[in-house]
Amino acid sequence: MIVSPLESSIDTLYRGPLGDFVSARTALARTLKGDEAKRVKALQKPAVVAWAVNQVYWQARPVYDRLIKSGGALRAAQIAALGGRPADVRGAGESHRKAIASAVKDAQRLAASHAVHPNSDALSQTFEALSLATSAVEPAGRLTKPMSPAGFEALAGVTVKAKPSAPARQEGKRKPEGEIKKDASDRQRQAEITKALASVAQAREAEASARSDWERRKRDLDAAEQNLARLQRS
């Protein structure tokens, strides 16, 4: 795909150091005229978390692509389960969690090289939201704000498919008791699947938050121990 010089310059702007964004935006706008200059001047400076996510897109693309792919696989598994088809939702969820953890680690590493320290919880939530979204809120690599996962409601509009029922009977003839019970059982099963998927989505968010909290506390402990060791040596 051919990228115009202006689009390439905007990409470079979002790829660069966060502290240089405003001055770089001003410098770029001065090289342009009319609508192009106005467009560049209106570009928003990314929040710290959004900037760190952008760095993964620009500098660790395989990690970013793996995240997006795993999110798509998880969503597809959830939709398949809602449709009554076999799907490894648990396996897809585990792969997705690993992809998020890897993306968060790279985002923190890339940000730290610029003395920027984004919140790990916000990073995790933003990566999860990006990878499960059905459409892009902002262009890839140009994110300006943190995102929050949509959760189970992201599957809104997906029809829960019940098992095929027996052919319609002639008017006036009542279904046998066995078929009535089977239809009721199918409806109950699909309702339980829907409820279970919602519980999985909520538990996944809680687990991601707890994991991020543990990682933050572990870093605090490591820093405290290093400080103690330094003081004891002095």
Architecture overview:
The chain has helices at residues 5-15, 21-30, 34-41, 48-59, 61-82, 89-112, 120-132, 177-233. The N and C termini lie far apart (59 Å). The radius of gyration is 24 Å and the shape is flat. The protein has two domains: 5-41, no CATH class; 48-147 and 178-233, no CATH class. The protein is mostly helical. Helix 4 (48-59) packs across helix 5 (61-82) and helix 4 (48-59) crosses helix 7 (120-132). The model is unreliable at 156-160 and 162-166 (pLDDT under 50).
Give the helix/strand layout:
Layout: H1 5-15, H2 21-30, H3 34-41, H4 48-59, H5 61-82, H6 89-112, H7 120-132, H8 177-233
Helix pairs in contact: 1-2, 2-3, 4-5, 4-6, 4-7, 5-6, 5-7, 6-7, 7-8
What does this entry show, briefly?
The chain has 234 residues and is an all-alpha fold. Helices cover 67% and strands 0% of the residues.
Total number of domains: 2
Shape: flat
Can you count the helices? 8
Structural class: mainly alpha
| Strand portion | under 5%
Largest sheet: none
Low confidence ranges: 156-160, 162-166
Mean pLDDT: 82
Query: What is the terminal-to-terminal distance?
Result: 59 Å
How large is the radius of gyration? 24 Å
Helicity level:
55-70%
Number of strands: 0
Give the helices and strands as they follow along the chain: HHHHHHHH
